[in-house]
Amino acid sequence: MSFAAFASRLAEAARAVTLRAADFEVEDKSKGGLYDPVTAADRDAERAMRALIEADFPDHGIAGEEHEERPARCAHSWSLDPIDGTRSFICGLPSWTTLIALLEDGAPILGLIDAPRLDELYLGEGNHAWLNGEPIRTSACRTLGAARLSTTDPFLFAGGEAAAFERLRRAARVTRYGQDAYGYARLAAGAIDLVAESGLKSHDWHALVPVIRGAGGVIGNWSGGADLGAGQVLAAATQELFDEAVAALAV
After folding, report:
1. Which listed CATH number (3.40.50.300, 1.20.1250.20, 3.30.540.10, 3.50.50.60) goes with 3-135?
2. So what's the pLDDT on residue 22?
3. Quick check: 237 and 138 in contact, CB under 8 A?
4. β-pair type (148-151, 194-197)
5. How many CA atoms lie within 13 A of 206 on its CB side?
6. Which of 42, 147, 175, 219 is most buried by a 10 A CB count?
């Protein structure tokens, strides 16, 4: 079985948990800080994926949002976010996703964004990306004035970041909110042109990189570099749009 097929198996295992979830209790992981909800579905879905990895690839590492990291004994490791967009999940909205990435020597080489409620599975590997098995490409948008921009929540930005995003928003043709990782999936499919976010952890962006790049898009940080470790992520349909967005954020 290929790694891509196995990643799809992981998504199916997570769906079996999350799509059945009902009457769940919500816990605030922040312990008094910025509200950070989690449910049993988050934890159980990650546990189901971990069990498959441990059975089929016992040497592979596993790093997930909800459980302790298991170090790799080889070059490969898996990055798991069982429910990205838990706020949408607990509000009964359909845009939450499951994020799965395979890393080789620390770099994501395969990414999967699954939207179970919408029955949409986005997969990226190498120079290719697919939605439910059909090839997808980013749009041809090259200018901010024509761009459809997305971010999860403008109120998550503060200080200089808030001012920088406001410049981007004012320059874009239209802006939509509340999509979490689904915004990147729709960028890969050509329906959104630009996504700018901050405060992302590694499990939030690992899966996005192969999907965006496989679909022909560009993903990097707000300064135009490739290092996403600081949590600032900028994804664009084309290099020209990415460069213009970087310039707008830096003014």
Report:
1. 3.30.540.10
2. 63
3. yes
4. parallel
5. 26
6. 42
